[in-house]
Amino acid sequence: MPTILDATSRxxxxxxxxxxxxxxxxxxxxxASAQGAIDGRILFQQKCSTCHTIGGGDRSGPDxxxxxxxxxxxxxxxxxxxxxxxxxxxxxxxxxLLEQFKGFAMENVGLTEADARAVIDHVRAETATTAPASATxxxxxxxxxxxxGGVQLAAWAVFLIFAGAxxxxxxxxWLSTRNPxxxxxxxxxxxxxTFFFVVASLLLVVLGATLQDTPYxxxxxKADRIVYVAARQFDFVYSLEPIVSxxxxxxxxxxxxxxxxxxxxxxxRGTSLDVNHGFGLYGPTRQLLAQTQAMPxxxxxxxxxLDEPGQYYVFCLEYCATGHHLMQSRLVVx
Length: 334
Ligand SMILES: [Cu+2]
Description:
Layout: H1 10-31, H2 40-48, H3 73-81, H4 83-88, H5 92-100, H6 113-129, H7 150-176, H8 185-210, E1 225-232, E2 235-239, E3 254-255, E4 258-260, E5 265-272, E6 277-282, E7 288-294, E8 300-305, E9 310-315, E10 328-333
The chain binds copper (II) ion (CU).
């Protein structure tokens, strides 16, 4: 399920509001005597949670984690009880938020001042006890250690064997050519020519054998999901709307907690807002699945099918400056 609800899901929200409203009315009638104090948690769930989360990332309204610390109590009470009035009065903070949310206005949900206080207390308490949603935040208990074995071990062994062979050849050449007079130049060139043809034909064979595996034939098949990724020093920004330049960041809804359906073909469209970065996608066991470069001025498409549900990781695979190691993020496949 995507974490974004957009304006098109309005009818759904009206139905939800209606159902919630009916529940509230009858619940209120039955429970009025049982419940004296106003419960901020319940109010939040009923009146705010269609548009807001507390630490779960932006929906059609901003993530409210920490938002109570950004505004004065007076402002909050006025905003929560009469957002329509404040927008009409062109309150500067309200207008700025409205612009950030592309003109989608918060609704007046009919809270009293006492209700508003209870909700504010609830959001403050949740902020104090939960972690903020952030794709860049490490999971509790840290990142899993990647398994060392299988393909990775084989690749490492092949690398070591080849590197060792090259070192041996260099050593042998160094030892056998200490005296220039000893070198038979003609024979050396003949060896070089043979070597060139052997390696070139070997590479051609490998090219022929692997060409059919290149994904270009599927380039115009449709992806189930398109996720835009902007890399920058030092994090990854995700959105379901195109991000090409830094200017776009203000106009798109940034997804703080990226959730993707299991089995779907996902197309990441990656770019960079500053220097070259890498976009390396790792699976639940932290094994590298796919990677592409994130370069300023280019949008690279990376298609992957994420079958296995779980936590996936994204790391920068290009040393981009001193904060490179901070470029870690996560997404969830459900
Ligand atoms: Cu980097």
